[in-house]
Protein: Mitochondrial arginine transporter BAC1 isoform X2
Organism: Vigna radiata var. radiata
Amino acid sequence: MIKGLYRGATSSFVGMAVEGSLFFGIYSQTKMYLQGGVQSGEPRPQVIIPSAAYSGAIISFVLGPTELIKCRMQIQGTDSLVPKSSRYSSPLDCALKTVETEGVKGIFRGGCTTLLRESIGNAVFMSVYEYVRHQMHSNIKVSSSNYSNLVDIGIGIAAGGLGGVGFWLTVLPLDVAKTLIQTNPDKNCPRNPFRVLSSVYQRAGLKGCYAGLGPTISRAFPANAATIVAWELALKMLSIRRD
């Protein structure tokens, strides 16, 4: 059924909406603070990296629980995986049963791995985005203001898409470890992502650590391109200046 392809999507959509607004808001404010309130045209890694890493760390507290629910909803796809008696009827049911069986801390299982993924990944994402955007704006001359918006959208698509690809190429192994930690039925399973990845590497090699790389990269470019274009358009509509 088509519905099965979107299992766990509700919590993911909620998480992404909150994540996006939080991340870009915190990133912009932190970046401005580290720049001393002064606009700077040249990308500065000493500003971009800590701003993005800090923002990623903050949103991980939202993403951790929502992704745990999403992952647990997704793995109950067939009777052979999860018996009907143990299935979750909704994301809320999943959250409540998790808290009931594992306590409040259970809903934050894999939180440290999520924090690492978001901090490192977003530092890479924003660095690639800011540098690609700066270079493209510096080298593309627009002869007419009529084409200015189209050029900005094109640059946003390229810079955002490449940033998203950079994010996942860097931290996909951490995402693999996070998913294994969050979906392991054993409440006492190892929580150290590097220990989990070491086990995966011993069983399946480097390929196992990058499981799902193709679909992830295929999604990363258009998804992040759309996110960046939406963010940049929102800034223009709100008349908010940026570098």
